[in-house]
TrEMBL record:
This is Inosine triphosphate pyrophosphatase. GO terms for molecular function: dITP diphosphatase activity; ITP diphosphatase activity; metal ion binding; nucleotide binding; XTP diphosphatase activity. GO terms for cellular component: cytoplasm; nucleus. Binds 1 divalent metal cation per subunit; can use either Mg(2+) or Mn(2+). Pyrophosphatase that hydrolyzes non-canonical purine nucleotides such as inosine triphosphate (ITP), deoxyinosine triphosphate (dITP) or xanthosine 5'-triphosphate (XTP) to their respective monophosphate derivatives. The enzyme does not distinguish between the deoxy- and ribose forms. Probably excludes non-canonical purines from RNA and DNA precursor pools, thus preventing their incorporation into RNA and DNA and avoiding chromosomal lesions. It comes from the Eukaryota. ITP binds at residues 9-14, 56, 74-75, 149-152, 173. Pfam families: Ham1p_like (PF01725). CDD domains: HAM1. Mg(2+) binds at residues 43, 74.
């Protein structure tokens, strides 16, 4: 039986997306089973996205049985005009303000450019930590598409056909999104011959 890897998340949409990205390619043998656990981790403060993800992963390791492979994923939305803010705090901005007010934050500025960044921190069964990061450039736009997944409806990637993440089919989004890119690196690492 394939070993289990724990993904620390309580977000069902995120779990579905990650399972899709990490599933074996055609003809590839399944090397692991992905399960999730909703562990309440401290939200680290800071601008260093790798530090935040590693800190969360270390907390998760302490909560799980010794030797249990585990990973956390942290996603940031960084506005160029605000020198990278809201960054790692975007989840809390969306929760407390909503996407319409986030768009309004940039109303007085011509620069709507942003980058979406996903950082994965993984602890293997030996207790070694590894990080993987994906970045997608784009711009902040008025909400378009379903408002069911964070800030997807206000981020229009530079690549693609001029639509927001929320307007894209999942397979198209996964090919160009910061999460898709970070997890592609992670998948390559997990499926590499050991």
């Amino acid at each position: 039986m394939a070993p289990q890897i724990v993904f620390v998340t309580g977000n069902e949409n995120k779990l579905k997306e990650v399972k899709m990205i990490l599933s074996p390619s055609e003809g590839e043998e399944e090397k692991f089973t992905l399960i999730n656990q909703n562990i309440d981790l401290d939200e680290m403060q800071g601008a260093d996205l790798e530090f935040i993800a590693l800190s969360k992963c270390k907390q998760a390791v302490a909560e799980l049985p010794k030797g249990q492979p585990v990973f956390v994923e942290d996603t940031a939305l960084c506005f160029d005009e605000f020198n990278g803010l809201p960054g790692a705090y975007i989840k809390w901005f969306v929760k407390s303000m909503g996407v319409d007010k986030i768009v309004q934050m940039l109303a007085g500025f011509s620069n709507k450019s942003a980058q979406a960044v996903t950082t994965i921190a993984y602890a293997d069964s030996e207790g070694q930590f590894h990080t993987f990061q994906g970045i997608t450039r784009g711009k902040i736009v008025n909400p378009r598409g379903p408002q069911t997944f964070g800030w997807d409806c206000i981020f229009q990637p530079d690549e693609g056909s001029g639509v927001t993440y929320a307007e894209m089919p999942k397979s198209e989004k996964n090919n160009i999104s910061q999460r898709g890119r970070a997890f592609a690196k992670f998948k390559q690492f997990l499926y590499a011959p050991k």
